[in-house]
Amino acid sequence: MNINQSKVAIVGQSENLDWFDTVPGEQMAIRIHSKDVNGAFTIIEVNVPPFMGPPLHYHQEREEIFEVLEGRFRFHVEGKEFEVGPGTSVVVPRNTVHGWVNLEPGRSRMLFTFVPGGIDEFFPLISQTPPERWTELGNQNDIWIVGAPLSVQ
């Protein structure tokens, strides 16, 4: 197999990730920034604290793909709920209401892939923004909140 080296790029290695805080107890790292792939996608790794997850929301401009690395999660996608574990991928089309919650008593891990990218700058801003402004911050970054976070019950 002949690989054209000018088309191959290693843009992130696990030992070089810059982790940042979002909400209390949650950390993220941008694995592949959209600027490194001409805006095609963004990949983010997240360490999720026990029994936590985002509010129900949707994206108008991008699909979101979740890859469960460790732990168990309950997902809500367009009115349906289901549980998933490691090795599971969940694909959420644009304009589809979704959310998830970590069901584990310890940390769990996932990858988020956004297609197209361009949402990279939102996540580091969460910890720098007062909670009462998170909805506004989300709306500025194609995150439209429509409901409360899922609970573990």
List keywords for this structure.
globular, 153 residues, disordered N terminus, mainly beta
Approximately how much helix is present in the residues? under 10%
Poorly predicted regions are: 1-5
Strand content: 35-45%
- Rg, nearest Å: 16 Å
Output mean pLDDT: 92
Verbal overview:
The chain contains 2 helices and 11 strands, in the order ββββββββββααβ. With 153 residues, the protein is mainly beta. The model is unreliable at 1-5 (pLDDT under 50). The protein has helices spanning 122-126, 134-140, and strands at residues 19-21, 27-32, 42-48, 55-58, 63-70, 73-77, 80-84, 89-92, 98-102, 108-115, 144-149. The chain has a 6-stranded antiparallel β-sheet. A 3-stranded antiparallel β-sheet has the order 7-6-9, with no helix packed on it. The protein has a two-stranded antiparallel sheet with strand order 4-11.
Q: Secondary-structure blueprint of this entry?
A:
Layout: E1 19-21, E2 27-32, E3 42-48, E4 55-58, E5 63-70, E6 73-77, E7 80-84, E8 89-92, E9 98-102, E10 108-115, H1 122-126, H2 134-140, E11 144-149
Antiparallel strand pairs: 1-2, 2-3, 3-10, 4-11, 5-8, 5-10, 6-7, 6-9
